[in-house]
Amino acid sequence: MTDPLTPPKKKDPLVRTRAGHVPPGLRSRAAKAMAVRAGQGQFVLQTCNTTGQTTYPPRDRSPFTWDELTWQEQPRGAVIEAVTTIDATVDPFFREHLPWRVGSARLDAGPMAIVHLHGDVKQGDRVRMEIKLDRGGNPALFAMPEKETPNMADDPQLRVFTADPKLRRVLVTDGRGPVGQAVAQALLKAGAKTVYLGNADTLMRYPGQDRIEAIEGIEPVALNLTDTSSTQELAAQLGGKVEIVVNTAQFTRQSGVGFGGKLSDLQTGLETEVSGLMRLAQAFAPAMSGRSDDGVNSAAAFVDVASIHGLTGKSGFSGAAAAAAARLSLISGLRGEMAHTGIRVMSVLTGAIDDEWHQNVPPPKTAPVQIAKAVVEVLQKGQETICAGDVAKDILSRWQADPLLTIREENQ
Q1: Are both 203 and 150 inside the same structural domain?
Q2: I want to staple 86 with a disulfide (CB 3.0 to 4.6 A). Which of 11, 73, 100, 207 is the partner?
Q3: Backbone angles phi, psi at 339, to 5 degrees
Q4: Are 315 and 410 in contact (CB under 8 A)?
């Protein structure tokens, strides 16, 4: 049985922080394709187009017929045939995490695979397989207990593959709106130690302020993403404490491109959502990167909540969609940079949010609690991308199947 996590002792400022190494990163194009799918929570393996046999690890051609391979969803069951504990290695990352358990698993899909093992898994057990991303963004098979076990999420080896908020301190950038408030409460419920809740205008009160700031574990902080000085000052105060950043900043207005749009609204949206995201990353990414392997409460993740219409555009909300598109582009670049430091970069994609700025949008709409649930889920699972609500899931699935058709559907 996994021992529950205990709060870490107060850090000695004179002790050198452990360097944040990442696992070896050289992977084939097929492995990167697997990582893309794993980052969305899928369990897919390659299948031979001729024989239908499943193969692992990822390959460029079928080892059975030399035919092409197709990615397909597979059953997640497996049986652990053998277990090995690694006590010595020359790899800088794994040296800091020994002992490390691996095993041979006979997948229900067919292949035998070398997999990482949860601490509650032993030889002969039936397990549930997942494809996890390591701190460098590479895919790896991880064997989980078939049924829930006590303190299962606290397994040290599993936490290396996730960004679980338990015992971590989190910065939520915009606490003035319902999304930021819902996210803050969900993170505390998931075990976060402290949630620093951003307020862009401390002189102006906002709905729910007394209630949210009275919750134990929430600390209001001044943070205006349109002001470089504000962002840098907060980073100077909290940069060495924050382990997870969740960017919930939004500026949504109904607007067209040639009709009904205001250039000032577009500029404000880009300044808040795009330039603000860049200010936030430049202020907090260096300090977080330096603590990516700092024990139980090591820095873990940078999460951005953005509209799914950044992929498609949206007639009637063109300015907001343009800002979301730019955010998704920045997040992709940041993910590549942070992969070398061990910090995960995650996207939570939403449909139209059920707020005052989407009153004219017919249901279904995405509730703030759905976004909060998705934020916690993406951290606990260690994914790269997750959709909050059925609307975003539907648009993403259609966009992946036919991008140009989905763009036309969302704009006519």
Answers
A1: no
A2: 100
A3: -60, -25
A4: yes
